[in-house]
Each structure stands twice: as C-alpha cells, then as structure tokens.
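ARCHIVE CARD
CATEGORY: sequence design from structure
SOURCE FIELD: tokenized fold
FIELD CONTENT:
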C-alpha cells in the first residue's frame, strides 16, 4: 500500500491538483477519493494541498466544474455529487490527521457545497443529479450519486458539530434522502445494469442490517466474476478495480469481512509493478481496458485495505458508517481536544 500511495502522489501537480493521471482530466469526486488515499498513507500535506486546490476553485454557488484540465474548466456542468463530496474528504482527513486548522479552512467550501445539494433536493427526497442551464434542478436523480450524497450529508452534519455550526437543513435533507434510498426505487433513474447502483446504498450506510445483506446477495451472481472481481456493467465482460474495491467496502459495512478480503485479492491482477492499478480487464479478450492507471482506482484499493485492516482512525468512514456521531455530539475546536477517530460525546 505504501507503493500504491506513492504512485498516487507521483501524479499530483506542484499546485496540489490531483488528476486521474499527470496531464489528464481532474474531476472533484475522484480527486477527493485520491486525496483520502494519501491521508491513509500518511501523506497529509499532499492531501491537504489537493483539498486546497479544490476549495480555491469552488464557484460562488457552491459548485465545481465536472471536469478540469491543467486548472481550466473543460466540463462546466453543475453536478450534485461533485458539490457534496468534499464533506466526506474533510471528515476523513480530520479522522486521519486531527488537523483542526484544515477543517476550519475547508469548512466554508463544505458548507457552500452542501447548501447547494440541499437546494437541488427534489420533492420526494432524492437529489437532482445536475442543474439545468437556467439554474434549476433537473428532474433526474441517480441512485449511486444520491447514496454518495447521503454519506456526504452525514459527514457534513458531523463537521457542523465539530465547528459548532449546526445545520438543521442538512439533517432534514439526509433523513428524507435516506428514506427515498431505502423505500422508493422509482425516485431514481433506472441504471440497474451498473454495479454501483447495486452496492453503493450499502457502502454509504443508507441500507443496513439484514436488508444490506439481502441486497448484496441478490446481485452477487449478476455482477461478481469469481477470481477476477466485479463487473462495472452487468452485461459486459469487463471487471474493474474501483468497483471491485467499492464492493469490498460495502461487504465490510455488511459485516462480510472474508468476502470483502476475497474481492480485494481477486482484483490484484490489475496491479502494476509500481503499485498503481489498471482500470479494468475485458476478460473475454484478456485485455486491459481502458489502457490507463488512474489515481482513483488505486485510491479505492487503499481505502478498501484500510477498511479491512482498520489501520487508521479514518477507516471508520467506510468500515462503519454508523460510527458517524449524532448531531451535537462532537467537540468543537477550542474545547477539550477529541482524539482523532474517537469523537467524544
């Protein structure tokens, strides 16, 4: 894992930008995932630089562009999952490093991003995936993106407690969103052929207990290729490293540690000599595709390994979503200093 973290760090720009690979595209969600892996590997300054790069480019409405290249916006669309995910990265970084100054620095960007997410919430509790050109929310909601936003809002509520600035609108929003994720599949566009829609509600902590185990069991034969990992798309002979490791995270949440370990082991055929990981394998042709080794695939491996090993306090973000503190139970900066990863009630 040290080599994998080093491979991620090698792609980071001097300005802190953390793209898919040097010279390639950067999207906020994947950049945050890669920054989390840096924190797991002890590269806290690099992770902080990646977060600061993003915070400096946040728009006044709380959004980011969907894609950047060389610091410039190349896909200007406003997407809710990008707006919300900094909350997950910031909470994860707090648990990993205990850096209150970074939390204080990033908090305004987190707040603006989640305020935008709440503004994009639809009547039934789901969150629109994007804003239309006129600034109104699109009627379409995506299940994976909404599960990610459920996690983001819960991390945001925890950060609000840490900073001493409660956000009751977020608490209401995440309650309604959780209800929609658990009970109203019609609220989301049908993308059931994608494995992310299968496991992400479990990974994010929206579906728990027996329903989580049942959900994972129901899709297992459809998506899992024994010995190779998980398909990205049910009807394609293509296993991908990130989806396999995210499935492993969901399995950890569901209490299926051995099955999670098996999946992380199964996808190691994608590992490159330098510790980076190829995106996927078209196993029908025994061909790697696409021919690239993005930082976010390597990051998914690191986060899964941390969740399995409980190597850092930040592992609880993915290993135990229920460990997120209830509103008002986190010590604020300046009070008795909590131990990172062991929030004091």
């Amino acid at each position: 894992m040290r080599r994998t973290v080093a491979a991620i760090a090698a792609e980071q720009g001097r300005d802190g930008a953390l793209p898919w690979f040097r010279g390639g595209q950067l999207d906020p969600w994947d950049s945050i995932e890669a920054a989390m892996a840096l924190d797991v590997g002890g590269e806290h300054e690099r992770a902080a630089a990646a977060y600061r790069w993003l915070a400096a480019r946040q728009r006044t409405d709380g959004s980011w562009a969907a894609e950047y290249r060389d610091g410039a916006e190349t896909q200007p669309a406003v997407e809710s999952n990008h707006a919300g995910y900094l909350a997950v990265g910031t909470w994860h970084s707090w648990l990993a490093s205990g850096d209150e100054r970074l939390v204080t620095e990033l908090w305004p960007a987190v707040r603006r991003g989640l305020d935008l997410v709440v503004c994009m919430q639809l009547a039934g509790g789901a969150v629109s995936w994007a804003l239309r050109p006129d600034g109104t929310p699109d009627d379409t909601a995506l299940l994976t993106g909404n599960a990610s936003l459920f996690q983001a809002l819960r991390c945001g509520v925890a950060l609000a407690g840490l900073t001493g600035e409660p956000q009751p609108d977020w608490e209401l929003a995440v309650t309604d969103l959780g209800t929609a994720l658990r009970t109203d599949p019609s609220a989301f566009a049908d993308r059931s052929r994608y494995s992310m829609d299968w496991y992400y509600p479990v990974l994010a902590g929206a579906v728990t207990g027996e329903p989580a185990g049942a959900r994972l069991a129901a899709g297992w034969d459809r998506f899992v290729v024994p010995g190779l990992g998980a398909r990205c798309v049910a009807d394609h002979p293509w296993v991908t490293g990130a989806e396999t490791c995210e499935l492993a995270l969901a399995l950890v949440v569901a209490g299926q540690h051995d099955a999670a370990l098996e999946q992380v082991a199964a996808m190691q055929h994608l590992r490159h000599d330098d510790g980076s990981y190829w995106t996927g394998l078209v196993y029908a042709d025994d061909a790697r595709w696409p021919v690239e080794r993005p930082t976010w695939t390597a990051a998914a491996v690191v986060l899964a390994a941390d969740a399995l090993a409980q190597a850092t306090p930040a592992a609880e973000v993915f290993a135990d979503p229920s460990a997120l503190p209830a509103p008002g139970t986190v010590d604020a900066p300046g009070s008795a200093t909590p131990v990172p990863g062991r929030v004091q009630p």
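CARD ANNOTATION: The radius of gyration is 19 Å. Confidence is low (pLDDT under 50) at residues 332-345.
SHELF: design records, drawer C
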